[in-house]
Amino acid sequence: MKKKQQHPGGGADPWPHGAPLGGAPLGLGNWKRRVSLLPFLRFSLRDYGFCMATLLVFCLGSLFYQLSGGPPRFLLDLRQYLGNSTYLDDHGPPPSKVLPFPSQVVYNRVGKCGSRTVVLLLRILSEKHGFNLVTSDIHNKTRLTKNEQMELIKNISTAEQPYLFTRHVHFLNFSRFGGDQPVYINIIRDPVSRFLSNYFFRRFGDWRGEQNHMIRTPSMRQEERYLDINECILENYPECSNPRLFYIIPYFCGQHPRCREPGEWALERAKLNVNENFLLVGILEELEDVLLLLERFLPHYFKGVLSIYKDPEHRKLGNMTVTVRKTVPSPEAVQILYQRMRYEYEFYHYVKEQFHLLKRKFGLKSHVGKAPLRPRFFIPTPLETEEPIGDEEQDDEKWLEDIYKR
Q1: In Å, how far are 57, 118, 298 from 74, measured between CA atoms?
Q2: Which PANTHER family match (predicted)?
Q3: pTM
């Protein structure tokens, strides 16, 4: 019978095949514990590696989502806040929870959607509440090159906080350039109403003085200035048939070239940005309710806004921005505009439904009549135009001037 090997301390040798790798043998007690754990350690290391790989994938995905423009933290907190607010009917007390305070707000205002009135209010509110109102002197350059986007984002991000920045500009993704994504707000209106307001404002200005339209379209000939709106639409003048009738959606879609092309891609991207980056997109036809919700969501900026808006002196100033000499097109012309703006209307109705849902959460009833039926487009074909949009074309007013210089 073979004798068991002895180790120096007596007893059976725990290393029958030699000392373990990594140095001198441990004590007997420690070694027994280590042997008993070996199967577990072999499984644990494999499991540990799998967990670490999963964690790495999760972290990279989260980082990619943030760099791709994930929702600002304030909007995530707000969604949780609204999710806890329920009502049995359209009335109820406002929630008592205090909303978080965003120190960076951007109002990339859509042209001819009441933005002059809102900016007048913001000037008063900024003095009253002490926030930094940052406005831009550039009114007509909404589409920017990559370098222009980077420069504008840099300038906005370095403004003294809390700030509210306002400019006519298509949606900017701050996260794409390494900045903190601000909270966006905006207001839109019925697309045909917006188009008509813009059409006559370019020709005749507003009540602040009819001469201000001469600055915007100085090269417009008299016969063009007094061109009947029905003739412009029915005879397919470029101003009334160009893809620039696709006007509202790019403010929410962004700076990508495809955002300028009327179609499903731009529409869906605009909806996605509304959901992820906009605190509120209101409807001009219900401006008082828009101001009520802004006061609720952003009290540090908009507290007391409704009382200022209803003040007779402010109303007098606001009425000065109303476009003059507007006329209503014929039903046939309006129907053609509906067809040319079908994506605009799809977006408008989507925003309107979201806005009404938000109002119900806060117990606000819509004091408007029954919603009209959505227009039926009798020519469901893509827009045709003699004026394709080029990547180098940046200025809407320059485009209009070029038309009237021919």
Answers
A1: 26, 22, 11
A2: HEPARAN SULFATE 2-O-SULFOTRANSFERASE (PTHR12129), URONYL 2-SULFOTRANSFERASE (PTHR12129:SF15)
A3: 0.69
